[in-house]
Task: structure prediction
Amino acid sequence: MKKGSKLAAIVLAVAMAVSMGACSSAGTTAASSGASSAAASTTIDKIKADGYITMSTNAEFEPFEYKDGDKVTGIDVEIAQKVADKLGVQLKVNDIAFDTLITELNSGKSNFVAAGMSVTEDRQKNVDFSDTYFDASQAIIVTKDSPIKLPSDLNGKKVGVQQGTTGDTYCTNEDGKNDIKVSSVERYNKGVDAVADLMNGKIDAVVIDSFPATKFVEKNSDKLVKLNDALTVEKYAIAVKKGDKEMLDTINNVLSDMKSSGELDKIIEKYKAALGA
Ligand code: GLN
Result:
């Protein structure tokens, strides 16, 4: 008995020391934000106290997110900036590999994922999705002289995809429910590397989202074409940590305002118009 209570006292003392340590380190870095952080009880309170909101993305997906010099820009960044503006805080962008986005979100390192991310049942097990903001599909890019003219021509072919994307899931066809059976799936962290291998003849086709596919083809229009037939029907949404209702409501309010004011359409049109510019 006595031994047990002594142990409890040690545990309590350690816990107090740890929490005091945490307080004092917050206090030394930023006294004012440290003080308000202590009072912050909700996600939004914390974001306001910190003065910034963090979005995770993979900036290899023009026109939704891509690097312009060392700045990350694109449709998703513009939506995220509106969310930051609504809260009166700065926007921070974490640029990481696509297949690590959900893990990073759930570890608490960011507040939301805006990455041309399609809503899927699998992902819904791990995150909550906002209202959707873009209709997408998986497109096929081939070289101009390719014998691949239709989706069914992908049967038995070597196809490049972006790792962890819906294009990867479709081509991998784990449950065998898609009609198309490719011979092998080459997975890349960046779509641009898949496109480079396609042009080098290392793979037969690239399967990637339609709007980014248009961008890749536009940049290599002497060598590449995008086929007209799409493989899937998808919708993009912003992902938040499961149960983060406040964050979700804030994002949905911003999306709804941007839709009804026509601003979202205007932004999308701007990036379409930039094609070929
Ligand atoms: N829309 C695709 C997906 O959600 C690809 C997104 C991306 O590559 N950024 O998997």
